[in-house]
Amino acid sequence: MDRKLLKDNELYPDHSIVWQADTAIAENVQELLIPQVLWQAHKEDIRLLSLRKLLYVLPDDELTDMEADLSEFDGIAIQFPGFLDGRGYSHARTLRDHLNFRGEIRAVGDVLVDQLFFMKRCGFSSFVLKPGQNPDAAIKALSTFQLSYQGSSDLRKPVHRIRESL
Amino acid sequence: MYIYDEYDQRIVDERVDQFRDQTHRYLAGEITEDEFLPLRLQNGLYIQRFAPMMRIAIPYGLISTRQVRKLADISRHYDKGYVHFTTRQNVQLNWPRLEEVPDILAELATVQMHAIQTSGACIRSTTTDHFAGVAADEVVDPRPWCELIRQWSTFHPEFAFLPRKFKIAVCGSGEDRAATLVHDIGVHLQKDGQGKIRINVLAGGGLGRTPVIGAVIKEDLEPEQLLNYLDATLRIYNRYGRRDNKYKARIKILVKAMTPEVFAREVETEWHRIKKNSQPLSLSEIKRMATHFTKHDYDPLSDLDFNHLALQGSPEFQRWLKQNVSAHQQTGYSAVTLTLKATSDAPGDVSAEQLDDIANLADRFSFGELRVSHEQNLIFADVPQAQLPELWQALDTLGLATPNRGLLTDVICCPGGDYCALANARSIPLAEEIQRYFEDLDYLHDIGELDLNISGCMNACAHHHVGHIGILGVDRKGEEYYQIQIGGSAGKTASLGKIIGPSFKREEVPDIIRQLMSVYLEQRYEGERFIDTSLRLGLTPFKEKVYGQKAA
Ligand code: HEM
Ligand code: SF4
Fold it and tell me: Where is the Nitrite/Sulfite reductase ferredoxin-like domain positioned along the sequence (chain B) (predicted)?
């Protein structure tokens, strides 16, 4: 597991796996990413697992059916199959703005330095970097811009509100 | 026009730093070719047939003379001393060096310009009526709304990786001069019975391989909700637009697949959710925006009698006056089009020297501002009528008084095979052959208004589907051929052209056009335009003329 988790401007080793109903969980695993379909089918079993649990969201998933269950998860991991696939940004915003999810939202998959700023603005709070990404550049990228024209899920004040408050 | 304050300036400055850093990491091998692609595209940088091509934004076609001079300097210093104005009111450099692009961006930032989102699968620069703010038929000035959209879309965090590029056009006048019906989103500004602004939103128009006319998805939207509504529309597109096939990824395919009614319903639901959590546009922001687009300091002048004015000048001046001078909201003023369509110059191309000359004239005659039109022309929007003879004289000396605005030789033309690797055929040489063939100005003026659009391939960069005559480059066994269609138009009653039959060799095309014209001239009603005659008659008489009886 040479993947790095970027969280609160620090890098940690990534000790998560995508949970599958029938495989044994290795000892160093600390977090489970639970696909929605498996959650629906094995809720009772999953509740018994003592590890940290993140709902694993794929681009095609509909989140609205999950609203009632979100509080059972320690976080949500949104998957990017390729960095050009921007559906995960809309998922994150839906979770933050409409489903009022306040916990950790993590980007996993094809997560590159130059996407991080946008992800953060859409409500992502942690990032498993694709192997090979420069960690220093990643931390720097989170503050690429100091100002934003539009409001977003990071609750940053858009420039016009700053002007108005002067 | 919109003038940056310290906040706007900081945002473009930070963009320059960001791109410098990205280019540096790319050249150092930290970013792969594939990963760099969207980063450079979102800064307007293509790698083209011979060199990189860089597209610089001219938001909604409005540019100051200071900015024009900067473009001239940049093209001299970093390129080959000319620029190309595009069909989306932007401007392109054809030969910049990748290593120097960050420096070019830094130069642009000193005059409040940038290349943000001029390309790539994101919200592209917004376009509108090139006569915005001065058009005699204007109901709502679209420019403040374009600037609001520009700011909202700039680095919009949710929509930087859409299924495909996304283009928004805004119209606030009786006639639609922004081709809003063939954009991903069209925004129609109007006024209700009490004089309040209300907005109709269209979605799902587009050209390319599958041309579609957009459908109205929302009527009478309160303007304070415009950006929330756009957020909702884009979110539905981002989530459900196809990503498996590049040619089916535009919003038009999604709207068609869902039907406009269902699409509109989905957007409506999302919009209601968004409205609950997001603030509407504030009235003070709308007001602040409007103050950037107030009327110029016009002198109180009266309209001149143009017949009288014409008689004082040469026949060339008279033609120019009739063809290139347009009505204005303000009495005593006119808008003047400089067509970049002189025979033998590639449509839309202007040299650095010409740019400097044009800037000097705009300072003298038109409040130091210019417009770029999607017909690839430039416009002086605010010229006192009494100064028209003097302006004409100056333009004529510079070769910029070609009196062909809106005529057959005012060709809209993509870069085609001379620059573009995707081309089936060259477009620029055909435009030139047509211009040479139809040199007779009396004949051209007799034909009257005619949009001729030439695209070098299916991608339709020159909007050939909505040309009154549209020409498409096709490949027949490795040879360049041209398919001709007629009956397209881009206004509020937009229509898509129909192909008249088998394609032609380049040298045959001008004479085929003449044959189409002869049918029109024989059969037109008094005052009827070619487009109207062609729609009334249908294809048959044109086909018979061109291919003979049996083909029809
Ligand atoms: C020279 C390199 C160029 C290449 C490789 C290129 C490529 C393309 C492609 C692939 C499309 C189709 C997009 C789609 O179907 O979604 C397109 C559309 C378009 N291009 Fe270009 N283009 C080039 C230059 C230009 C230039 C210089 C202009 C302006 C003069 C231009 C204006 C347009 C416009 C207006 C469209 C829109 C059609 C639509 O929205 O459906 N392109 N281009
Ligand atoms: S229409 Fe085709 S040939 Fe012309 S510029 Fe566009 S992609 Fe190139």
Answer: 53-109, 329-396
